[in-house]
């Protein structure tokens, strides 16, 4: 069947023919797109999950406003550096994206879980947040 896909903006709309086979192929891809989208949301939750608990951590252990802001800033700086390194070495082009994505999510999740091991407002805890940010660049 013919499906209008685009118009030129002036005059008659342009029709692109899309065969029934191509439509069936796209329908088969929707589950993969849904899984990828879900994984993306779950992976990027690393960014926000620990930041959401800063008020609880502050209630348990006194932290200054600077220390609280550093908790989130370390992720942002890690993401920027991770994105820069990834682009500098063309990692998304050189590596299998499934493995790159999976490794980033796994290492990021592990680093995010390790913040429970270290005392709040300690250098190792901030380092784990930085590593989490670097891994978010792979997601």
Verbal overview:
There is one protein chain. The protein has a two-stranded antiparallel sheet. With 139 residues, the protein is mostly helical. It has six helices and two strands, in the order E-E-H-H-H-H-H-H. Helix 1 (20-52) runs parallel beside helix 5, helix 1 runs antiparallel to helix 6 and helix 3 (65-88) packs parallel to helix 6 (123-136). Helices cover 72% and strands 8% of the residues. It has helices spanning 20-52, 54-60, 65-88, 91-94, 97-114, 123-136, and strands at residues 2-7, 13-17. It starts with a strand and ends with a helix. It is elongated. The model has no long low-confidence stretch (mean pLDDT 84).
Offer a few descriptive terms.
elongated, two-stranded antiparallel ribbon, 8% strand, single chain, 139 residues, mainly alpha
Question: What are the SSEs and their pairings?
Answer:
Elements: E1 2-7, E2 13-17, H1 20-52, H2 54-60, H3 65-88, H4 91-94, H5 97-114, H6 123-136
Antiparallel strand pairs: 1-2
Helix pairs in contact: 1-5, 1-6, 3-6, 5-6
């Amino acid at each position: 069947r013919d499906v209008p896909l685009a118009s030129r903006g002036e005059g008659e709309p342009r029709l692109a023919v899309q065969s029934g086979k191509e439509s069936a192929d796209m329908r088969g891809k929707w589950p993969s797109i849904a899984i990828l989208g879900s994984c993306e949301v779950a992976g990027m939750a690393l960014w926000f999950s620990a930041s959401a608990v800063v008020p609880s951590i502050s209630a348990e252990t006194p932290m200054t406003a600077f220390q609280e802001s550093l908790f989130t800033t370390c992720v942002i700086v890690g993401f920027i550096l991770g994105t820069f390194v990834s682009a500098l070495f063309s990692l998304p082009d050189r590596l299998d994206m499934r493995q790159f994505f999976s490794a980033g999510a796994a290492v990021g999740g592990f680093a995010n879980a390790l913040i429970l091991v270290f005392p709040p407002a300690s250098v190792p805890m901030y380092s784990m947040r930085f590593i989490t940010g670097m891994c978010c660049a792979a997601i």
